[in-house]
């Protein structure tokens, strides 16, 4: 075997060049030791991609171990393309969330579109047919002249997500959109996808069986996206605009065809392993597949289909051209797969084979261009326990500030509903197909989306949550709260949480304050996961979300999937879409407030959006109280008592009541025994339930048995929202509120 | 009735239509691959929603030239039933089986929302479960649903009674705000002169079951498979 060498014209590899590739001196030294020589130009490119934060999780791995990852339902935990859980009746769900922050900031349309494409491939490479997407988006300030670029980003991201998902035909059924100045220089685009399949049809991305062929399928390889993974592992500076060419370009039609062809090929019985080419392209797909199978690979790069003949081996290995897959098939049976792919109009080429050498050997034009050990590069990538320390101004941040009660609570309510943050998000949702595949019982805009699982009595519920302000004030409490709110959202529709995925969006971990945020957020999330018995089955870490030293607020986006065992328990067929959605719909129903308030204003919408202050302690999260509330809600759903339910979150009680009223234009008359400020408190573990009068006693008795404070506060009906509180009343036509709320976002995005 | 759903590589509503025809309405239903040339004896042919061949050119334009479309054309010309939904409607326009063309939506954005439709014809088999003037609620999900034609052609279409559905408000009134994609004369669906070919932008297959909160579309699909000209009496019993 010839020793690999750089070709004429390729740069000589030294530690300076390695530093340009983001490798530290230590990492470069380790790489040379591993190879027993200096790497070639191609090898340097490969190692820099595999060692990038995006691929190696080198700064987060040590903290991610805190997450619980097992339960009786978990089929595949972290480490596969997507995690898999048993959802009953012989079905499993595969899901994952992934960030596409850096590319979306540089080129919003393609950045967001390819984010959706990537997460869909992660799901269908597991053998699961994607049936739903969620998107969690964070933008900066969009007002005024300063917000012009941000409005362009909002528009591009929303179009990008829509055009891609709509074409592939996967409904986007929910998500969240937030705005905060900390995202002015780095927006967040976190895309989630969920797929389902029969439990015996799950595939893994494993290369095994020496001599088995490796097939390349889908789009040809071009120069787009080279070093995308590395870019996603760096902070932005004034030259980031020049990185536009590193953003990939998506083709949703090819994705759709690849989806159908892949699922059909996997059903054919001759496919052993499948992996998409996502971040770091051919490099990560081949290395990771080989590592999982404890195998090696030999690739002849001359056989990789190219868009232009002049691509170098370095470029071929690092291209992030979209809509490409790798299949490992049984030896001698590759033709069956090629035939399926070609019927769907896809090119397929045999580019190499699996070996038992444990090495990746790449040849190009008769020359060995790389020969590297697989396992040490993938699993032995550096792991850092970065120095972590609370930010210097933490005490100052957490200093409680007095919160003035509103002089006019109705005015305060309208001012809140008028912000893009709390305004109606229909302008976004209606650009996404939310009903294709005909499973959507509850779509975007409710606490949790609900999708029936055809052929079973069950449904899946999905939600995503995080409150970055809480996380900024106290990352551990914020991490706990994100999980608690997601579990509560699922409980409002009666779903039991079965698995979680997440996207951890932070600044540079090389800053001790950020490393501390990361560690604390994860710790808080892990505590809550254990309390609710929710395993983390997949996830993604996006660090270096900062520009010229300004980091985003810590944003550990959480997405949790739940199962409703028997839909028929919650209501009759014709009522389910009303009963399970957020919003009053039946006049005469009683309104019951569950949970008790502890007066929480730190990081609240009232404090932030109306007073421009972000200070104090975020709401305390009592995991026992949350568990009791969620158990009560699930019990009430199983018993069919509730005609509706909505959790209390951003904005507090008054905003939650207004949301229930605005949904269908049906009001309420209610009385609470608290002052005007408390109407905006964000005390946790609370929800509003509506029940027919005949069921009120059942609900109150069950609440008492579980120790959940519960009080009847009024009745659904009329076209006004009337709320009496200590010392005053809010009284408004629901239509007026609705006008303010629905016009907020369209006006803000101009 | 034997039903065939044409599958293009970018079809994405094929399974939804299959579900309703086969599981809700109990019809013998099969998929027809776009490269085939035979309809395998299907009496009803459905061109489903989706993005046929990616629709990067103009929605449905390439699909109109696919091998199966020659067979669909012969079937239609012989009086056979052809139902085009969303992208399928666009294909029927591109093949000339129905008149007119689609432009991008008025505000140039994809629209995924429930709309109201007024039934303009009840003497068609497809509409045999509705009465003229009925207002139906159905989802739309498209970027190119802005129906257009020349004034003369539109007048001709009206005179022949080929407008089957119009976008209206919940009370059945023609209002510009209810015609979200900006279609000429608020046209949501039309048929050919024989009444055997129907195209519409809204998705009846997504609102054909009680569990999804809306069954207004079931009548249309039930009408499409109705035998002879009679009403479908068993509609309520057939619901899923």
Report on this model:
The complex is a heterodimer of chains A (750) and B (240). Chain A is α+β, with helices and mostly antiparallel strands and 750 residues long. Chain A is 36% helix and 23% strand. Chain A has 27 helices and 28 strands. The longest helix of chain A has 21 residues, at 148-168. The N and C termini of chain A lie far apart (63 Å). Chain B has a single domain, classed as Rossmann fold, CATH 3.40.50.880. Chain B contains 6 helices and 11 strands. In chain B, the strands form 2 sheets. A 9-stranded mixed beta sheet of chain B has the order 2-1-3-4-11-10-9-6-7, with helices on both faces. In chain B, strand 10 and strand 11 form a beta hairpin. The longest helix of chain B has 11 residues, at 14-24. The radius of gyration of chain B is 16 Å and the shape is globular.
Major sheet of chain A: order of its strands? 8-10-7-11-9-12-13
What is the average of the pLDDT values of chain B? Answer: 93
**Regions of chain A with pLDDT < 50 over 5+ consecutive residues?**
none
Q: Identify the CATH homologous superfamily of chain B.
A: Class I glutamine amidotransferase (GATase) domain
DSSP strand tally of chain B: 11
Ends apart, CA distance between termini of chain A: 63 Å
Percent of residues in β-strands of chain A: 15-25%
* Number of E-state strands of chain A: 28
CATH architecture of chain B: 3-Layer(aba) Sandwich
H and E order of chain B: EHEEHEHEEEEHEEEHH
* Oligomer description: heterodimer
- The CATH topology label of chain B is Rossmann fold
**Helix/strand structural class of chain A:** alpha+beta
Number of helices of chain B: 6
The helix content of chain A is 25-40%
Tell me the strand percentage band of chain B: 15-25%
The 3D shape of chain B can be described as globular
């Amino acid at each position: 075997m010839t020793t690999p060498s750089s070709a004429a014209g390729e740069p000589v590899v030294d530690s300076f060049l390695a530093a340009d590739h983001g490798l530290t001196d230590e990492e470069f030294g380790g790489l040379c030791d591993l190879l027993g020589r200096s790497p070639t130009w191609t090898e340097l490119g490969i190692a820099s991609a595999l060692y990038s934060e995006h691929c190696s999780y080198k700064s987060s791995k040590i903290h991610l171990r805190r997450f619980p990852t097992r339960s009786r339902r978990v089929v595949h935990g972290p480490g596969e393309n997507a995690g898999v859980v048993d959802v009953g009746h012989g079905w499993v769900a595969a899901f994952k969330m992934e960030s596409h922050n850096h590319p979306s900031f540089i080129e919003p349309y393609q950045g967001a579109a390819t984010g959706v494409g990537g997460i869909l491939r992660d799901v269908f490479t597991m053998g699961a047919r994607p049936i739903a997407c969620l998107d969690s988006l964070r933008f900066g300030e969009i007002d005024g002249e300063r917000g012009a670029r941000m409005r362009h980003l909002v528009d591009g991201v929303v179009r990008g997500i829509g055009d891609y998902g709509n074409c592939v035909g996967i409904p986007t059924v929910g998500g969240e959109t937030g705005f905060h100045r900390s995202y002015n220089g780095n927006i967040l685009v976190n895309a989630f996808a969920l797929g389902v399949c029969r439990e015996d049809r799950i595939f893994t991305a494993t290369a095994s069986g020496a001599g088995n062929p490796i097939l390349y399928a889908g789009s040809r390889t071009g120069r787009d996206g080279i070093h995308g993974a590395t870019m996603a592992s760096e902070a932005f500076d004034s030259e980031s605009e020049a990185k536009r060419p590193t953003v990939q370009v998506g083709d949703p039609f090819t994705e759709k065809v690849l989806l159908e062809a892949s699922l059909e090929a996997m059903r054919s019985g001759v496919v052993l392993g499948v992996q998409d080419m996502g971040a770091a392209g051919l490099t990560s797909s081949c290395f990771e597949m080989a590592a999982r199978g404890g195998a090696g690979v030999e690739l002849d790069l001359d056989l990789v289909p190219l868009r232009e003949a002049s691509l170098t081996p370095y470029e071929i290995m690092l291209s992030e051209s979209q809509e490409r897959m790798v299949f490992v098939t049984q030896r001698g049976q590759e033709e069956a797969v090629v035939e399926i792919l070609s019927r769907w109009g896809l090119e397929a080429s045999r580019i190499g084979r699996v070996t038992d050498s444990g090495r990746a050997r790449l040849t190009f034009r008769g020359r060995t261009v790389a020969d590297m050990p697989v396992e040490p590069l993938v699993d032995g990538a550096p792991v850092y326990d970065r120095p972590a320390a609370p930010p210097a101004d933490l005490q100052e941040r957490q200093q409680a500030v007095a919160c003035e009660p509103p002089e006019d609570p109705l005015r305060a309510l309208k001012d809140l509903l008028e912000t893009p943050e709390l305004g109606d998000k229909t302008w976004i949702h209606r650009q996404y197909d939310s009903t294709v595949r005909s499973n959507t019982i509850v779509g975007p805009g409710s606490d949790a989306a609900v999708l029936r699982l055809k052929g079973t009595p069950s449904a899946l519920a999905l939600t995503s949550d995080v409150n970055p302000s809480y996380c900024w004030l106290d990352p551990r409490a914020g991490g706990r709260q994100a999980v608690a709110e997601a579990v509560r959202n699922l409980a409002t529709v009666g779903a039991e949480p079965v698995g979680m995925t997440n996207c951890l969006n932070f600044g540079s971990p090389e800053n001790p304050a950020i490393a501390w945020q990361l560690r604390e957020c994860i710790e808080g999330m892990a505590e809550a996961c254990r309390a609710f018995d929710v395993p983390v089955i997949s996830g993604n870490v996006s660090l270096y979300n900062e520009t010229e030293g300004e980091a985003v607020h810590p944003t550990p986006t959480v997405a949790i999937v739940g199962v409703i065992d028997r839909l028929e328990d919650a209501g009759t067929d014709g009522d389910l879409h009303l009963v399970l959605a957020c919003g009053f719909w039946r006049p005469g129903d009683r309104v019951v407030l569950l949970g008790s308030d502890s007066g929480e204003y730190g990081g609240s919408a009232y404090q932030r959006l109306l007073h421009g202050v972000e200070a104090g302690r975020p709401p305390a999260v009592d995991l026992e109280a949350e568990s009791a509330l969620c158990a009560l809600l699930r019990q009430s759903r199983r018993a069919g008592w509730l005609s509706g339910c909505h959790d209390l979150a951003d904005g507090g009680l008054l905003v939650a009541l207004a949301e229930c009223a605005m949904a269908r234009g049906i009001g309420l008359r209610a009385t609470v025994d608290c002052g005007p400020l408390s109407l905006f408190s964000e005390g946790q573990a609370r929800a509003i339930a509506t029940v027919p009068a005949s069921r009120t006693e059942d609900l109150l008795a069950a609440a008492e048995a579980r120790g959940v404070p519960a009080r009847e506060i009024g009745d659904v009906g009329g076209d006004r929202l009337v709320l009496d509180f200590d010392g005053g009343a809010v009284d408004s036509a629901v239509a007026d509120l609705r006008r303010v709320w629905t016009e907020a976002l369209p006006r803000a995005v101009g | 009735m034997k039903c065939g759903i044409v599958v293009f590589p970018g079809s994405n509503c094929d399974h939804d239509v299959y579900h309703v025809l086969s599981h809700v309405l109990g019809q013998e239903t099969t998929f027809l691959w776009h490269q085939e040339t035979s309809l395998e004896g299907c009496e009803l042919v459905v061109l489903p929603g989706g993005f046929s061949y990616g629709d990067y050119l103009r929605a449905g334009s390439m699909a109109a030239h696919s091998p199966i479309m020659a067979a669909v054309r012969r079937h239609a010309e012989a009086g056979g039933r052809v139902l085009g939904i969303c992208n399928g409607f666009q294909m029927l326009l591109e093949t000339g089986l129905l008149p007119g063309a689609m432009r991008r939506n008025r505000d140039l954005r994809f629209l995924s929302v429930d709309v109201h439709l007024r039934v303009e014809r009840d003497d068609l088999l497809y509409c045999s479960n509705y009465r003229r003037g009925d207002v139906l609620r159905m989802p739309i999900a498209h970027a190119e649903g802005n129906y257009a034609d020349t004034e003369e052609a539109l007048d001709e279409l009206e005179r022949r009674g080929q407008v089957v559905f119009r976008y209206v408000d919940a009370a059945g009134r023609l209002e510009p705000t209810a015609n979200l994609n900006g279609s000429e004369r608020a046209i949501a669906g039309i048929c050919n002169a024989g009444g055997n070919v129907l195209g519409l932008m809204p998705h009846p297959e997504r609102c054909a079951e009680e569990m999804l909160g809306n069954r207004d579309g079931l009548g249309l699909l039930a009408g499409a498979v109705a035998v002879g000209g009679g009403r479908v009496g068993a509609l309520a019993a057939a619901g899923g």
